[in-house]
Amino acid sequence: IYRGHTSWVKALDVDPTGQYLCSGDKEGNFFVWDVKSTRILQRLKLEGEISSISWSKSDTTSFIGISVDKNVYILCPKQLPTSVKEQNEARIAQSKQSYDSQPQHLLNWEYLEEDSEMYAAGVRVIIKLENEVSQLSFHDKGDFISTVSPFPLRANDQIFVHAISKGASQRPLSKSKGNVVKVLFHPTKPLIFILTHRNVYIYNLQ
């Protein structure tokens, strides 16, 4: 039994090795656990209910995406090999450089300062959307992450795909396909699967 949450657990995911588990609850508490010992290895307190968590499955980098209200937090797990941590930091540096070079941004990305409390807790980037996020999912290669906002102000804002290395967000769809429930990436091809209440759509991202 993994003890630590004091409210409803709303989301969880496991790292690619199966050694670690992460979970988030209704009060904004986020934990990374050691699967074998059930010990809490990393913790973070966020303002709001955690709605979704996704741990990237890449062999070279390892990020955790956490959605809370209209924000997506990109976190670097602390309990990783030094080589993976270095690749993570290099990817974030590349992301910030690319973001800063862009004249305009579809969404705002906030890069945390090294002396901030959230940076010390592992957070590197906060992607700020205009609508509440209900679900997010990493591509297996670990650079792309999708988000779903079921009740957007604009219909084509239901789905975004964010590229960490580029520090950029894009809308894959120009028109709404109904009430989107979930989005998943194909593991090897540039395709996304979009689940609505009545249909499943497949879109080519290229």
Question: Summed up, what is this model?
Answer:
With 206 residues, the protein is mainly beta.
Number of strands: 16
User: What structural class should be given to the helix and strand makeup?
Assistant: mainly beta
Write down the Rg. 16 Å
Query: Which bin fits the share of residues in helices?
Result: 10-25%
Q: What order do the helices and strands follow?
A: EEEEEEEHEHEEEEEEEE
Write down the overall geometry: globular
Unreliable runs, pLDDT <50, ≥5 residues?
none
Largest sheet: 5 strands, antiparallel
- Which sequence of strands runs across the widest sheet? 5-6-7-9-8
Query: What is the typical, i.e. mean, pLDDT?
Result: 94
Q: Helical segment tally? A: 2
Q: Span from first to last CA?
A: 44 Å
- Residues in β-strands, percent: 35-45%
General description of the model:
The protein has 206 residues and is mainly β. The protein is built from 2 helices and 16 strands. A 5-stranded antiparallel beta sheet has the order 5-6-7-9-8. A 4-stranded antiparallel beta sheet has the order 1-2-3-4, with no helix packed on it. It has a 4-stranded antiparallel beta sheet with strand order 10-11-12-13. A hairpin with a 3-residue loop joins strand 2 and strand 3. It starts with 8 loop residues before the first strand and ends with a strand.
Write the layout of secondary structure elements.
Layout: E1 9-14, E2 20-25, E3 29-34, E4 40-45, E5 50-55, E6 64-68, E7 71-75, H1 82-101, E8 108-111, H2 117-120, E9 123-128, E10 135-138, E11 144-148, E12 159-163, E13 168-170, E14 180-185, E15 191-196, E16 200-204
Antiparallel strand pairs: 1-2, 2-3, 3-4, 5-6, 6-7, 7-9, 8-9, 10-11, 11-12, 12-13, 14-15, 15-16
